[in-house]
Amino acid sequence: MKAEDLYEAITDLPDGQVTEGEKKLSRAGGARFRWAGLAAALAVVVLAAAAAGLLLRRGNRVGGGVSAPSDASGPTQAQQPEDPEAPTEDPNAPDDLRYTLAAPNYPLMNTYGRRAEVDGLEACLRTALPVLLEGAERENRVCAPLNIYSALAMLAETTAGDSRQELLKLLNAPDLETLRAQSKALWESNYSNDENLSSLLAASLWLRDDIAYNDETVQVLADDYYASTFSGTMGDPEYTNALRRWMNEQTKGLLADQIDEIELSDDTAAALVTTVYYRAGWTQQFHMTVPGVFHGLSGDRELNFLTQTLINKTLYTGDGFLATGLSLSGGQGTAWFLLPDENLTPADLLSNQRTLDFLISDKGRGNTDGCQVDLTLSVPKFDVSDKTDLIEKLKKLGVISIFDRCRSDFTPLTTDLQEPITVSKAEHGARVSADENGLTGAAYTIIEPTNSGIPEPLEKFELTLDRPFLFVVANEEGLPIFVGIVNQPTP
User: Domains in the chain, ordered, with CATH?
Assistant: First the structure.
């Protein structure tokens, strides 16, 4: 497919989805664009644009027709101030725009907190969370389940046959139409960028410029998953550099040590990436710091605990744990803390259905006994990060065909490769920190299909989190943005 044909295909997308851009021939001879494979990641999705020469200028449609230009770093809203925490641009970084094919138009209205009608999501989380957080032993664990959900949903769009059905079963969606509606609703109800809350989601697809692609699949990813599209030469260090830079921009550099190890190899058919950056303050600030001892699995450690007294606060008594929640600024979510009974561990709680009820939704928390107390809450500052190979976890969750050369089916993405496409890499990284001011978190998911072989497998009460504990950061309707285990509060 020639550059001119690709331009026409992409710009045929419905108004309000993919921004039309200017054609720019950046290589002599008008090299051909071809569609590659697909890889998925947790939070924001980037689509690799063809290095064949077509350049589409990114934009953000505002107010039903006015286009406000933006760079390749993700969604912007009208008159949003620049984030002071954003990393300084690297003057030696490649010109990312050379790879940009198209970008979606993000909704102007802030719909964060609008209830998302996602039938079956709770069942999916109930199945997946124990597997995603297992194996902590003496280490910290953290994941962003909605980020992984978005990446796997995009992966389902690029597969067919058993490969798609296994993903739909895990995501608890009867068909693609339902999955698209649910994914779009989740995105729109969890994206926010205002003075109270940053909950920034992004998605992209990185393509090979020597493979023909199915433009209908690209249209769906842009329409229902707000995915940008990029294309270049797989294995080219500059193209890999562009992917890393984009991911670091979306996550504000919080996961740079993990992202800077990501490689796009010669045999990568495509890469799917999703990301999330999250920042929210406490509604009620911690008023003092108290020294104490954290009884970790690796021994006792003296730490400073953030402490505040909460009047008429609900203390929940679950099956094997005590719990309470702290409201986040603007009333746009809650941070929940679960302290296991002394004879239990966080891993023990994850095998208990009543604990999962509490972790997953407000409904489950409403079914847990609670009483009003004047509560002195002490929380250690913590900064936990995790990097997870998703391949074995997905197999345990019933997603098998995409790793099998005899069963995988990526024909909705491309039919241009003779060798079977299988997923050779599925990786998730996440980080959450808590201090006097609030919570900060970031996550990504990246999935890389390749075509080169099989991958390797009122009473007064004190609640002091002075031993390993669980935490969940939930949105306004109670869905978990981050869930983690703190075995040691500091890295």
Answer: 3-119+125-280 (3.30.497.10), 282-382+459-486 (2.30.39.10)
Q: Exposure of 42 by Cβ count < 10 A (0-12 exposed, 13-18 middle, 19+ buried)?
A: buried
Residue-wise pLDDT tens digits, 403-434:
999 999 999 999 998 889 999 999 999 999 99
- Residue 29 exposure: Cα atoms within 13 Å on the Cβ side: 4
Instruction: Give the DSSP H/E element, type plus range, for residue 463.
Output: strand 459-464
What DSSP letter does each residue of 38-75 carry, written as one string? Answer: ----SS-EEEPPPTTS-----EEEETTTEEEE--TT--
Instruction: Please tell me the pTM assigned to this model.
Output: 0.77
Q: Determine the Cα–Cα distance for residues 291 and 449; give it in Å rounded to an integer.
A: 49
Residue among 342, 364, 356, 389 at smallest CA distance from 132:
389
Q: Which two tokens stand for residue 140?
A: 């910290």
Positive or negative: CA dihedral 250, 255, 261, 265 = negative
Helix (H) or strand (E) holding 178: helix 176-190
Alpha-carbon span 157 to 421, nearest angstrom: 15
